[in-house]
Every structure is written in structure tokens, then in C-alpha cells.
Design brief:
Layout: H1 2-13, H2 25-28, E1 46-48, H3 60-66, E2 73-77, E3 80-83, E4 86-88, E5 94-98, H4 102-105, H5 112-115, E6 118-122, E7 138-140, E8 153-156, E9 159-162, E10 175-177, E11 181-185, E12 188-190, E13 196-198, E14 203-207, E15 210-215, E16 218-220, E17 223-227, E18 230-237, E19 241-243, E20 252-256, E21 259-262
Parallel strand pairs: 1-2, 2-5, 3-6, 4-7, 5-8, 6-9, 7-10, 8-11, 9-12, 10-13, 11-14, 12-15, 13-16, 14-17, 15-18, 16-19, 17-20, 18-21
Bound molecules: 2-acetamido-2-deoxy-beta-D-glucopyranose (NAG) (6 copies).
């Protein structure tokens, strides 16, 4: 009932929040305790929650690891904090859905940082013996011996963060995506240095999402399209982008209809005006 009312209000307002998926929203909205959290979800969807006793798993990675090698899969992630690293190696399609609160999901003035209830985070950073890629909170790459990883990874309304420090401690990745196709809708990616990595052979797309960083925070060798994103400078250093294209290919970082802002959580003493280079 509550859902039906919500949808009719959205429809009658004529306005759309593009970060919300018409296909998955019914699944993502939190339900009354008497209804299954999986109401409105695609058949076979797994439910992850750190607190709900009806969940199939308490960790997202355990749900990912349980999936068969073939067949499209969907995982609904309940609201909460997930201190873990995700590693997606399966090649069959995978959709991760972040649960949303019906009261805030519909706020037209809202943004992903306010809206998202699911926070997946880790806190590794590059120090002796640790490579860049090993620090990523979310890794999407082929399993060993395979040429290509996930063919259609999608995430909706999820915060992925690297909380190694509240300053640029060294490289501390949020995403590491190589030889895979991945897209993100209404997500948040938060770190300071090297937040986003689209590596070799990867095609990535991010829509209506917020990316926080300071130094080289969009970097890679692959093909990345950022559409209607907010790039939030927590400070300045290196460049916002650090990309190595390959001549004769279309590899690169494409940024369209997006904005660069001073991050709301930048230290008040940090100067960002006219100091942040677009690329290095
Ligand atoms: C996941 O949990 C739901 C109950 O919330 C149950 O109906 C479903 O069978 C479980 N799925 C698996 C694969 O165990
Ligand atoms: C990955 O995406 C690219 C660009 O859209 C496409 O050409 C390619 O076929 C996709 N690869 C797979 C395995 O789906
Ligand atoms: C970063 O700041 C937040 C908010 O003040 C605090 O809770 C957190 O512990 C800090 N993180 C580190 C790694 O110091
Ligand atoms: C994307 O951003 C452009 C420019 O700000 C805006 O005109 C457009 O409506 C946005 N598109 C979506 C789907 O939000
Ligand atoms: C998200 O919205 C809140 C409330 O309007 C605002 O304070 C904050 O600056 C916004 N964040 C970004 C990254 O735009
Ligand atoms: C802000 O920066 C100053 C100067 O670098 C530092 O002393 C202070 O601890 C920082 N504050 C926070 C909240 O990180």
C-alpha cells in the first residue's frame, strides 16, 4: 500500500530522480517488518543484512561467493555498514542493489550521499609490500586463467568508500576494474588518492554518482564514461584525472554533464579555489 502510494506520487509529480531505477526501485525500498524484504525483487534475489535475521548472508562478499558461475544474479543489500572488500570474478551478469528509505529516496533535492543507506568500506592503503590494486574496496576482474571478468556488473545506490585516513595518506583505491564491464547508478565513491581505477580492458560507466578525492582520483588505462556525476574535491593534488590513453583506441576518461565542487567535507583550512588541475 505504502509502495503504491509512493509510486503514484512520483508519477503524478512528473519528476524523475534519475539515480533511481524504475526496474529495481520496488525491490530496493524498505518494507514494513511484516513483509518480506525481497518483495518486488527479481526471482532468486539474495538478501544481505548485518542485522535482519531473514537475510541469506551478513556479508556481501559471502553472497557473491555463493553464486553459481552462470546465470544473471541479483543481490539486495540491506541498510547498514559493511566493513569488507568485494571481489567479483564471475563473468555472468551481477546486479547489486542498495536498500533505500521510502521517505528520503523521493527527495528531489537529495543526492547520493544523503540517500544511500548502504556503506561498503575498507581502509587499506599503499605501503611497503602492498600494491595499488590490493587496496580497492571493490575489485572487478577476471579469475585467474580467464580473459575477461564480469560482462555486466551493475550497482545501484551504494556507497563504496576507502576510509584509510581523512587525508591523502597514499594511494587508497575504492574501485579496481580490469577486463570487465561495469556500471554504477546513484553511487558514491569516496577516498583521497586514486579513488577510481578503470584498468586495462575495462569499460566503465557511472551515472548520477558522487566521487570524492584529492589526488589523481580518476585514473586508469581503460575506457570510462562519467555521466552527470559530481566530482567533489576534498583538496587538490596531482590532477583530478590521471589517464594513460592508447593511441588508435578510444581509451580515456569521458566526463559529460558533470560538475566539480569543493567537497562539503573538505577541511575548512584547505584551499581548493583555482588549485585543482583537471589532469596531469
Ligand atoms: C534467501 O532467504 C529467503 C528468505 O529471506 C529464502 O526464501 C530464500 O530461499 C533464500 N535463498 C537461498 C538461496 O538460500
Ligand atoms: C564490454 O563493453 C564493450 C563496450 O560497450 C563491448 O564492446 C563489449 O562487447 C563488452 N564485453 C562483453 C564481454 O560483454
Ligand atoms: C575520519 O573522520 C571521521 C569523522 O570525524 C572519524 O569518525 C574517523 O574515525 C576518521 N578516520 C580516521 C581513519 O581517522
Ligand atoms: C544531466 O545533467 C545535465 C546538465 O546539468 C542536465 O541538463 C540533465 O537534465 C541531466 N540529466 C539527467 C538524466 O539527470
Ligand atoms: C548533498 O546534499 C546535502 C544536503 O543538501 C549537501 O549539504 C551536500 O553538500 C550535498 N553533497 C554533495 C556532494 O553535493
Ligand atoms: C585541518 O587541517 C589542519 C591543518 O593542516 C589540521 O591541523 C587539522 O587537524 C585539520 N582538521 C581536520 C578536522 O582534519
Amino acid at each position: 500500500m505504502r509502495l503504491a502510494v509512493f509510486f503514484s506520487v512520483l508519477a503524478s509529480s512528473g519528476l524523475q530522480i534519475h539515480a533511481l531505477s524504475p526496474e529495481y526501485l520496488a525491490c530496493q525500498l524498505q518494507k514494513a517488518a511484516s513483509s518480506s524484504p525481497l518483495t518486488g525483487c527479481p526471482e532468486g534475489t539474495l538478501f544481505v543484512s548485518p542485522t535482519d535475521t531473514r537475510a541469506n548472508f551478513t556479508k556481501v562478499q559471502d553472497a557473491v561467493a555463493s553464486l553459481p558461475e552462470t546465470g544473471a544474479a541479483t543481490i539486495l543489500i540491506g541498510n547498514g555498514e559493511y566493513f569488507e572488500m568485494l571481489n567479483v570474478a564471475r563473468s555472468a551478469p551481477l546486479t547489486l542493489l542498495g536498500q533505500l528509505d521510502p521517505a528520503t529516496a523521493s527527495d528531489l533535492a537529495g543526492n547520493a550521499s544523503q540517500r544511500n543507506l548502504v556503506h561498503i568500506w575498507n581502509n587499506l592503503y599503499v605501503q611497503s609490500g602492498v600494491t595499488d590494486e590490493e587496496t580497492a574496496t571493490l575489485t572487478i576482474a577476471p579469475s585467474s586463467g580467464q580473459n575477461f571478468g564480469n560482462t555486466n556488473f551493475r550497482a545501484y545506490n551504494i556507497d563504496f568508500e576507502n576510509r584509510a585516513a581523512n587525508y591523502s595518506i597514499s594511494q587508497a583505491l575504492v574501485t579496481s576494474i580490469t577486463y570487465a564491464n561495469a556500471s554504477f547508478y546513484g553511487c558514491v565513491f569516496a577516498s583521497w588518492q586514486d579513488t577510481w581505477y578503470t584498468g586495462s580492458g575495462a569499460y566503465t560507466y557511472a551515472f548520477d554518482s558522487i566521487i570524492y578525492g584529492q589526488t589523481d582520483y580518476l585514473f586508469g588505462y581503460g575506457t570510462a564514461w562519467f555521466q552527470n556525476v559530481t566530482l567533489a574535491n576534498r583538496a587538490c593534488g596531482g590532477g583530478i584525472t590521471a589517464w594513460q590513453g592508447t593511441s588508435g583506441t578510444k581509451n580515456g576518461a569521458y566526463i559529460a554533464d558533470s560538475k566539480i565542487i569543493r567537497s562539503p567535507d573538505a577541511n575548512s583550512t584547505t584551499v581548493t579555489d583555482k588549485k585543482c588541475y583537471l589532469g596531469k
